[in-house]
Amino acid sequence: MTSRIPDKATVDGLEDRWNESWEAAGTYRFDESATREQVYSIDTPPPTVSGSLHVGHVFSYTHTDVVARYQRMQGREVFYPMGWDDNGLPTERRVQNYYGVRCDPTLPYVDGYEPPFAGGEGKSVKAADQQPISRRNFVELCERLTAEDEKQFEALWRHLGLSVDWSRTYQTISPSSQAVAQQAFLRGLGRGECYQAEAPTLWDVTFRTAVAQAELEDRERPGAYHRLAFEPAADMEEATGSFGTVWIETTRPELLPACVALVAHPDDERYQGLFGTHVRTPLFGVEVPVVPHHLAQPDKGSGIAMICTFGDITDVTWWRELKLPTRPVLGWDGRVLPEAPAGISSPEGLAAYGEIAGMTVFSAQKRIVEMLVEQGLMEGEPRPISHPVKFFEKGDKPLEIVTTRQWYIRNGGTDAALNDALVARGAELDFVPDFMRVRYENWVKGLTGDWLISRQRFFGVPIPVWYPVLADGSPDYDNPIVPSEDALPVDPSADVPSGYTADQRDVPGGFTGEKDIMDTWATSSLTPQIVCGWRDNPALFAATFPMDLRPQGQDIIRTWLFSTVVRSHAEHGTLPWKHAAISGWILDPDRKKMSKSKGNVVTPMGLLESHGSDAVRYWAAAARLGTDAAFDEGQMKIGRRLAMKVLNASKFVLGASGVATAAGSSLAEGVSAAAAVTAKPVTEALDAAMLSALADVVDAATAALDNYDHTKALEVAETLFWTFCDDYLELVKTRAYDGAAPGEAIDPFAPCSEGAASARATLVTALGVFLRLFAPVLPFATEEVWSWYQEGSVHRAAWPVSAPVRAAADSTSGGAPLLAAAGEALSVLRKVKSEAKVSQRTEIESIDLLVPEAKVAFVRAAEPDLLAAGRVRTMQIVDAVAALEPGVDGEAPEDGSVDEIADPTVMRTENAALVTEA
RNA sequence: GGGCCCUUAGCUCAGUUGGUCAGAGCACUGCGUUUACACCGCAGGUGUCAUCGGUUCGAGUCCGGUAGGGCCCA
Hints:
The protein has 918 residues and is an alpha/beta fold. Helices cover 42% and strands 17% of the residues. It has 30 helices and 29 strands. Helix 22 (685-706) packs across helix 27.
């Protein structure tokens, strides 16, 4: 072998070598001068850097990379940036635990602050042990940690071989991302899509922030029904005469002071006479009406329930639709408010309230129950149940509902026309696989309110408004002061609005800054605008937007995908992308969704290092979009075997064709040798059949990839490649060597027999096609081979087209069936030796090959190659059907095979005479 | 409670519009020191296509029911 081509091929170590080379050559650099028609743009999901990457990420990002590499080879200029989602609550929590700190916005900034420790990963630090620091110090720590995380993420992605343009990374917290988020917000404010409202809001008491509908999840939690006595008020006694105590059942007796009504189903006969009359709440003695509403469930508890402001979202619906008063009792810390709500006025009521004021929900419930029991207002013991309770998906305490001023974006939750328009956008989008569209539609049609975007947190994009401070010192929320777009990004808590001076902050007649930040989705819903340069690079924006592809997980269709559609629809009146490719989950071998803990045991970098990146990519590419896949290291081993096979088969092809000899002197020689070899005519039927089959595969793989079906593309290429290695190479080996002795270097420019030239042309042509077909999935092994005898990168080479391959093959018909028939014949010749338990090198003195009639011509066409590959001296090819007729083949089977079980559609042998070694 | 996906060989999965669709690979067994490859090659058999009905000349394939698994939403 030459020095260029290693004596012993290996897939190990290719990652670092080629990553350096690609970086140096700018192989994946995006050319900004490209036009929209030339560009293929991908809206890659920015991973949350505060989490860790797991095998699921490797899986889905590989899918996207296969698309990127394919499109690049198709000649598109691929716009494939990578972002980091470092904005938001997950980062805050990680910083708290990693550095043992907590943000206290009232504290001053400390220059040169160093946290108590670093690296407290994994364990959570109790709030009491966290050092309180200023907001600016806290944000600096967030930035410091995310920068570290981002380095590690990039290293992993590079090792995996993602062909992103690493000069185009972005962060969702960067100033330019903030500016985009703020500009989009201000545009929305101008159009009325962004608005603020004082309304009941789902509230996480741990994080003390509002939470959006999309961030909710139900969790089954134990609770208990408490049966409480409501005494009739005067009007009820009058109306009903004898109606006594009304018993209701509730899981939240602590909300009794917030009770504003009782509700029953309008058709519930038990309570017909009560509607419109009043009862008095136990302990607090507040008169509340009994009202009918269809959402009341007659079969739950006693069929009549108390409405509190607010116990759950049904309470909110009742409160709104029935226009009930507001009597909140919980504050944003999750504790009972110090002051009793309006309505409680009796000394007994106020005294009872005093007993629970300031308590947590848990303690308040306990105390209320004690009081109810003492006064005989509760019947029996609490009845334990298990019921679904709303949680913030990242929280661990049940959500409360608190009335606060918040910012919203219209998303069709309150506007039927907008809802229809957004459903129509979903119909316009090409979901891969198509059934994922249903998830989008279900979500959009089921929205019950607009998108709440304000968060009472610290690390995020500030809502870019100020408010005038009125003479009484209160903010004038109705008249926000906005910055100009060219001043963005702004931090209203630090920056001063134009027309004001810093000393006017928070004083009457002055201004006050909005303290809330935006939810992280309010920024990440703008990834197309961020990466495409909407704000600051109009030429780039024109060349890349609307984008071609949004790859993402199915779990965030309702959040990321939908919110991106909402923003693009509002700002640009278009879809943000044409296609949405949805990857499935990785499942444990026991078919459960891969858990975080298990995902961490198998670290992605460990996998890549032990199997090789190409092997792991193969495993990922072998799973279809939208389909859950098993975590299967066996599949990675197969991928590794394929990559090894690519290297070894390539070594053979280049050696037997003589290209390796030329490449040994210089790459340029190798290139011209490959050109010279492939320029020779393909004269042999078997060679033509190989190329014809290959042309079919090129067409099938191309069609599959155009359809985002990387699995099919890989499968067809892989199947033919194994036929190429196992059968075709073996068949033409002898012919291609053209009499060269073992180890003898073949001169690719020297004259050779027509048959050898035909074989060599086919081998080198096929190799070039296979390498390019595999390049998107196995970028390292294919690039390695490409470098042995071709200039430039295989990843910038043109995707193969079938026409020239087919043209080279058209001298003889036969195609794939001929190749298959020759392979089958080779197989039965091998079987003779395998069953005789002798080496495949053993020669066959003579043999009869019984061939189904339809294949006879094919086998004859490949006869010389079969004789050579099978080491057969004389072979009689016989029609298998005719052979069944006694005497037609001239003799009875001598080897004892029985004709009556023979199937004339199956190729087989008879009368084999092996040469016994002396 | 509603929606979506899945159930094919021991395992992981293909099976386009109903008609060679009963398939691949892995695993397993046997053989083999081949002028690419031991991180290898060759040769082997394995299935009531979850289940029950229906449509059809014909059903893994289309329709309905049931059971199990997964996910999403109430």
